[in-house]
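We both want to read discrete structure tokens more fluently, so let's practise on a single case. Would you write everything just below, so we can both look at the same thing?
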Amino acid sequence: MPTVPVTPDWEKTIALLARVDEGISLAVLRGRPDAELTLPSPGTQVFGIQVLLAGTPRFELDRGAVCTPRVGSLVLSQYSDRLGSQVRLPARHDVHIVDLRLSADALRRLTSFPIAERLVARFASDASSHDAPGLVASCGASHAVLQLAQSLSSTPLADPDALALWRRARAHELLAHVIDVLATLDPSVPLTAIENERLLRAFALLETRYAEAWPAVRLAKAVGLPEKKLQSGFRARAGTSVHAHLRALRLRHAAQRLAGGASVTDVAFDVGYDNLSHFGKSFRAQFGVLPSEYRSLRGASH
């Protein structure tokens, strides 16, 4: 299990810490710490799956780059026994992270998929250590992964044995989705330097004009990329389709506006939704609560 310091702030932030299977631990961090919290290196060979539902954590490796994922990200980490690392949670910021960790033995028992090799092949330039084997990288989490993370933050069953079995199944399902992401991240046709620049322009365009309708064919034409290469590039960099990435952007901006006290109706239309019911369902699927509930909860915490 993650080595968590025993402090009042940590005790308030850890919503769940459980062993869900042999060599597999689940932690749910959820709260608003008064002081910065630091989660130290596991000190052993571990594969980590973190889903960021709220917060602005920093994942740091010894003398490696810093990974600063956004809300709605899937963070994948590979630690070794010689690698120092830490996860920093800033003070006075809401945090909600679902953290699943699997030992090397657990991975070998569950799958023959080359997770470590695929991670290095796709993400070695993102946040890797130069002195010891290890890597931390992030991409956009799919709708299914976000829903799984939300469900793992809940306690849907009363019987302890039934709940343990349910969590084990959900943990295995989350691993399956991660393997699927890694299996599809490698685009069939590599992008040239010019095409990669145009792909980055597409990401920037959605970031600033997310309220507009952006079917893939329109975005591809706007940046000068074939639609197939655009979709392949989005899956390689964000782990999702253009449509899913745009939805995540809209909901992230909606959450920020709601936390500031804006009305649900204004926010829905401002971020690009023309149907309040659709907005409410999409928001709840990603954040686990309705927009009005989110607004009340975040407003009360400030």
